[in-house]
Automatic annotation (TrEMBL):
<dbReference type="GO" id="GO:0017001">
    <property type="term" value="P:antibiotic catabolic process"/>
</dbReference>
<dbReference type="InterPro" id="IPR002137">
    <property type="entry name" value="Beta-lactam_class-D_AS"/>
</dbReference>
<dbReference type="GO" id="GO:0046677">
    <property type="term" value="P:response to antibiotic"/>
</dbReference>
<dbReference type="Pfam" id="PF00905">
    <property type="entry name" value="Transpeptidase"/>
</dbReference>
<dbReference type="InterPro" id="IPR012338">
    <property type="entry name" value="Beta-lactam/transpept-like"/>
</dbReference>
<dbReference type="GO" id="GO:0005886">
    <property type="term" value="C:plasma membrane"/>
</dbReference>
<dbReference type="InterPro" id="IPR001460">
    <property type="entry name" value="PCN-bd_Tpept"/>
</dbReference>
<feature type="modified residue" description="N6-carboxylysine">
    <location>
        <position position="76"/>
    </location>
</feature>
<feature type="domain" description="Penicillin-binding protein transpeptidase">
    <location>
        <begin position="46"/>
        <end position="247"/>
    </location>
</feature>
<dbReference type="InterPro" id="IPR050515">
    <property type="entry name" value="Beta-lactam/transpept"/>
</dbReference>
<protein>
    <recommendedName>
        <fullName>Beta-lactamase</fullName>
        <ecNumber>3.5.2.6</ecNumber>
    </recommendedName>
</protein>
<comment type="similarity">
    <text>Belongs to the class-D beta-lactamase family.</text>
</comment>
<dbReference type="GO" id="GO:0008800">
    <property type="term" value="F:beta-lactamase activity"/>
</dbReference>
<dbReference type="GO" id="GO:0008658">
    <property type="term" value="F:penicillin binding"/>
</dbReference>
<keyword id="KW-0732">Signal</keyword>
<dbReference type="GO" id="GO:0071555">
    <property type="term" value="P:cell wall organization"/>
</dbReference>
<keyword id="KW-0046">Antibiotic resistance</keyword>
């Protein structure tokens, strides 16, 4: 009888522990209306910002921030890390030879280093890296990095981040970026530091902006990213923007620069970041 009561009591404790564990609160998310900023840039979409010190998220369209999209060229961040860590790329100075094919972006039509390739988002250069890494090593490394849900096979090894069923949410982008910024990825400190250096876009009095854009097609619609973080006076704010043209039409020439301009406007006006001229 005593043994039975003990087992029953132990069962109640286990059940209580499960209930308490399942009740662990999720991240604190404050919703904001940034629609006027999006409209001013002719864009629609969602923005997620994380205050690294407090752990509070600020979301414009939280539900959309939880939807998965193709990572497009934001995948160049983990691709750089994997390329360096596996030795598929020797270092950031390694030169990728132009194959002589004229492409729609003139800046891609030349030899360039890894640092230059990331800066101009050279797809052919990173496709070379992908073929060197190979599907098998991606399948080993991507789960370790926890960069969304990438679907890679030998047949799609140089395109799985641009087309297909690979997906990542804005919450997942920020989780990945925060671990990179803090040096907590399962990658050598050297290669994390090199990648962070390559991601620097501009700096001003007391602040540094690091990030990466991306551009893919989603169901026939242009879809764009801008992800990264701002380091300012000892604080770090992470951001992930995902947008489409507001009118649903093909993207115009303003779509590319509009992603970064929109994000910077909100970070500056609503969060007090990026004060003063950058260079």
């Amino acid at each position: 009888m005593l043994h039975f009561r003990f087992l029953r009591f132990a069962g109640l404790l286990l059940g209580l522990a499960v209930l308490l564990g399942s009740a662990v609160p999720g991240p604190v998310v404050q919703t904001r209306d940034f629609s006027s900023y999006f409209a001013a840039h002719g864009l629609r979409g969602s923005l997620l910002v994380l205050n690294g010190a407090t752990g509070q998220y600020t979301a414009y369209d939280e539900a959309r921030c939880r939807q998965g999209f193709l990572p497009a060229s934001t995948f160049k961040i983990p691709n750089t890390l994997i390329g360096l860590e596996t030795g598929a790329v020797r270092d950031t100075a390694e030169v990728f030879r132009w194959d002589g094919k004229k492409r729609s972006f003139p800046q891609w039509n030349q030899d360039m280093s890894l640092a230059q390739a990331l800066r101009v988002s050279c797809v052919p250069c990173y496709q070379q890296i992908a073929r060197r890494v190979g599907a098998k090593r991606y399948q080993q490394w991507l789960p370790k990095l926890r960069f969304g849900r990438m679907q890679v096979t030998p047949a799609t090894v140089d395109s799985f981040w641009l087309v297909g069923s690979s997906r990542i949410t804005q919450f997942e982008q920020i989780d990945f970026l925060q671990r990179l910024q803090q040096g907590k990825l399962p990658i050598s400190k050297r290669n994390q530091d090199l990648t962070k250096t390559l991601l620097e876009l501009s700096r001003g009095p007391g602040w540094v902006l690091r990030g990466k854009t991306g551009w893919a097609m989603r169901e026939g619609q242009d879809n764009g990213w801008f992800v990264g973080w701002v380091e300012q006076t000892g604080q770090v704010y992470f951001f992930a923007l995902n947008v489409e043209p507001a009118d649903g039409q093909p993207a115009t020439s303003s779509f590319g620069p509009g992603r970064r301009a929109l994000t910077e406007d909100i970070l500056r006006q609503e969060f007090g970041l990026l004060a003063g001229p950058g260079k």
